[in-house]
Design goal:
about 270 residues; two-stranded parallel sheet; 9 strands
């Protein structure tokens, strides 16, 4: 059951992300699903936003410029919506976070018990033992609001993180796109249509004939985690300096013999 969609900046600004969420729900005939608009700024507010329009187009949907949706978002903020759903269904809600983690950090600020009430948070974010994709250190979603990411990772919530070390193994090839384009399904053809610019970006940036399926791979992990293998550990996020957005993954059981920034973190 899909309880709702929340929006956040990243691919586009938050207002446009909300418009796209409403558009997609109308396109698939699911206008019964609510959309809660997320934060327009990072958790510290002064941080400059990184918007990847050069990857996804100025409209976030491959520059297709679809007509505006007729639906409207909830009056409720994304953070308030998340807290409400966690209280309505304690221990049962899975949040699949496909962008910067600002809304989740705000939910934790609203209700410090939120991490214990939520069932699981599945995060698309981080580069674990590999280079980043916005610079050598950082992955895009974590880099988008590293302070929020560190709040979430150290909150005590049950977190399953899917980094680009995983998603770069899941590729939709040019041949796959041709199958979508020739499909009898209007949804498959729609996907082929909006993916054109994304394919062009991957050819220029990664020199591959295909695209990385970051979001679908994360959804797969949420729906059927048995399809992947996992390593347990503690994640901290570097929040400033040349390695801002770096996800440091501690998998050791070593006792360091002194108090560190990792001590006592879940």
């Amino acid at each position: 059951e899909l309880l709702g969609l929340t929006t956040i900046f990243g691919n586009v600004y938050t207002t446009l992300a909300t418009r796209n969420a409403l558009h997609l729900l109308e396109a698939v005939g699911r206008t019964d699903i609510p959309v809660a608009e997320g934060s327009h700024v990072t958790i510290k507010k002064a941080t400059k936003l990184r918007i990847a329009s050069f990857v996804h187009g100025s409209d976030g949907l491959g520059n297709q410029n679809f007509p505006p949706p007729t639906g409207k978002p909830l009056d409720q903020s994304a953070a308030a919506f998340l807290v409400e759903q966690a209280n309505l269904y304690p221990g049962q809600v899975t949040v699949v976070a496909l962008g910067p983690l600002t809304n989740l950090a705000l939910a934790i600020e609203l209700d410090p018990s939120f991490p214990k009430k939520i069932g699981q948070i599945v995060i698309l974010g981080g580069a674990y033992s590999v280079n980043g994709n916005v610079n050598p250190a950082a992955e895009a979603n974590i880099f988008g609001d590293p302070d929020a990411a560190d709040i979430v990772f150290t909150s005590g919530a049950d977190i399953l993180a899917v980094g680009i070390n995983i998603t770069h193994q899941v590729v939709l090839s040019d041949a796959d796109r041709e199958k979508l384009e020739q499909s009898d399904s209007k949804y498959a053809r729609y996907l082929s249509k909006i993916l054109g610019l994304y394919y062009d970006y991957h050819k220029d940036a990664y020199f591959i004939k295909g695209v990385y399926l970051h979001d679908p791979a994360t959804l797969i992990a949420a729906v059927d985690p048995s399809l992947m293998t996992y390593t347990e550990g503690v994640v901290r996020v570097q929040t400033d300096g040349i390695t801002k957005g770096l996800t440091v993954f501690d998998t050791t059981k070593k006792r360091y013999g002194e108090i560190t920034a990792w001590t006592g973190k879940p």
